[in-house]
Design a protein that fits this description.
This protein is 67% helix and 3% strand. The chain is mainly alpha-helical. The chain has a two-stranded antiparallel sheet with strand order 1-2. The chain is globular, with a radius of gyration of 19 Å.
């Protein structure tokens, strides 16, 4: 009996690359700056990190939970390696005459606590986001895309924020400040997803036509501890 033919896709690898790129940039570059617009203070990374949730939604909506799961693991591995590389590079003694150590450390010198918070929050939040969307798609028979892209972000971003900020900053910042930043950044993530809804519709519809795929996770094994795409 011949093995089943695995379906190939034109844009799956491209979406994976975009997802991982946004994830790495928002975690390595964004956290280094506190920005202020119109008197409102926020972490600069919040402008770009929600894009990872957007592409997580697109992956699950078009290709299904199992293929999105592989991308989440890819992103997790890339983020873990980037964190390890940052630690090794900073730990190496600087060469005589090289004066960039303090500048490099100020940008990439995240504490182990923040690295752990980022990794755990990303992993749990992304899987919660993908699971919620997949379940909602089946429940709504594929209708009302906006309800599941926004609804899954409400779930995933809430879990991400509830893990990251307390693990990273509780006991370092005042508790009231941790709660304030956690709530404001969570609201920004959800509003970002709402604002991006027209773009999400356009990308999802274009991909479904190009890939001839619109996956429904009716019989999917939702365990996150697998890499198989089927």
């Amino acid at each position: 009996m011949s093995a089943p033919v695995r379906k190939s896709y034109k844009y799956y690898d491209l979406i994976t690359a975009v997802f991982v790129t946004v994830l790495l940039c928002s975690n390595l570059i964004g956290p280094g700056k506190a920005a202020s617009l119109w008197g409102f203070n926020f972490g600069a990374g919040i402008l770009f990190f929600p894009i990872s949730y957007l592409f997580g939604d697109i992956l699950t909506e078009v290709y299904g939970y199992a293929r999105a799961r592989r991308v989440v693991w890819t992103g997790f591995g890339a983020l873990a390696f980037a964190s390890l590389m940052s630690w090794v590079v900073l730990a190496l003694p600087p060469a005589p005459g090289w004066e960039g150590q303090e500048a490099l450390a100020s940008v990439f010198g995240q504490t182990p606590r923040i690295v752990l918070a980022s990794l755990v929050a990303f992993w749990v939040g992304e899987f919660a986001n993908s699971y919620a969307l997949a379940r909602m798609k089946v429940a709504t028979a594929g209708r009302w895309l906006f309800s599941r892209t926004i609804g899954s972000t409400v779930v995933g971003a809430a879990i991400d924020s509830a893990i990251f900020y307390p693990v990273a900053f509780l006991g370092v910042w005042k508790t009231s400040l941790v709660m304030q930043v956690m709530l404001s950044n969570y609201i920004l993530k959800v509003l970002w997803e709402v604002a991006a809804t027209p773009f999400t519709y356009w990308v999802v519809n274009a991909l479904k036509r190009a890939e001839h795929e619109d996956h429904f996770d009716r019989d999917t094994d939702f365990t996150p501890f697998k890499l198989a795409a089927e």
